[in-house]
Amino acid sequence: MSRSLLRAQPAAPSAGSGQAPATGSPQAAPAAPPVTEFKPLRRHTGIFTGRGGTIGWLASPAALVVVDTQFPDTAAVCLAGLPGRAGRRLDAVINTHHHYDHTSGNPVFKPATRTIVAQVNVPKLQFAAAEKSGDLDKQVFADTTFAEAWRHDCGDEVVTAQYFGPAHTGGDAVIMFEQANVVHMGDLVFNRLYPYIDRPGGASARGWVKRLDEVHQTFPVDAIYVFGHGNPKFGVTGTRDDLLVMRDLLNAMLDHVQQGIAAGRTKDQITALDNLPGFPDFHVPAPTRLPSILGTVYDELTAKS
Ligand SMILES: [Zn+2]
Fold it and tell me: Could you point out which of 25, 66, 274, 292 has its C-alpha 20 to 30 Å from the C-alpha of 143?
């Protein structure tokens, strides 16, 4: 998410364990050190939760790979505690997209990794967002980029990153550990949380719906999916059915706005909604971020170009 977006919005819903989207402003940073946890998933892979987007990792005798980097403080905890690292350099750090709660730990990982990988739009979007927020000096950018796909063979594992098109931003990659059969979705899934749609950052709600269908059809039925953010009840891992829950929510938001436009209602009338009927798992106490998100959807649907 972008800082400017966040400043204009009420706080993100409480999600515990630092798994909600980070709030971004220094004033909102927790006073106590964030609670962090390493959780193994399957075949040398796992997740690290702290503050910001969920970090995915591969830590085998042959390879070390990290997906996303959160913030400097939790990135340092992650780097220091990566299972079985024993001082080895990482083969790669992959950024699923440019948002600062997924890339602000890049400076911590940079000296310990061979390369930082991201979709080709990510450094540009990261630069533009950092320039706007005055944080250019804190940025470390990907030095390996790809347009459609990137593949890395490492020991007995193959890591891929794929770009499907505009969705949460204009540079979202889906990362897969093929042998482990684990797929990191970045912020393409906010697991039962209202999502951020970063329109200035190249997002498309309509594109996002398509991307989730495509991803759902691309990867194995029994893959474990990792999500950038999740509400505490549902967590940050799941199955491909959870992708369709996210898709259905986005579709319902698009339908709500489209029907309002067709009925001749104003933007203010259409977006004045604290929770979306039919999706109780997403519901949070008012005031919620939904009006702002619906406003973004409205802007997309009424854009001239
Ligand atoms: Zn994001």
Answer: 25
CA of 168 to the centre of ligand 1 (A): 7
What does the alpha-carbon distance between residue 269 and residue 273 come to, in Å, rounded to a whole number?
Answer: 9
Mean pLDDT in order along the chain per 10 residues (305 residues) = 36 38 50 90 98 97 97 98 94 98 98 98 98 96 98 95 98 98 98 98 98 98 98 97 98 98 98 97 96 98 90
Strand partners for 47: 39, 56
Ion ligand 1, residues whose Cβ is below 5 A away? 99, 187
The domain locations on the chain are 3-239
Residue 106 backbone dihedrals phi, psi, to 5 degrees: -55, -40
Tokens of 154: 């490492």
* Pairing, β 224-226 against β 237-238: antiparallel
- Residue 164 CA to residue 186 CA, distance in Å, equals 13
Count of CB atoms situated within 10 Å of the CB of 260: 20
Q: What's the CA gap between 266 and 291, in Å, rounded?
A: 13
CA of 238 to the centre of ligand 1 (A): 18
- Cα of 251 to ligand 1 centre, how many Å? 19
Q: How far apart are CA 101 and CA 283, in angstroms?
A: 23
What's the CA gap between 8 and 25, in Å, rounded? 12
CATH architecture type of domain 3-239 = 4-Layer Sandwich (3.60)
> Which uninterrupted H or E stretch holds 290?
helix 290-302
Distance 243 CA to ligand 1 centre (A): 16
Q: What is the pTM of this model?
A: 0.90
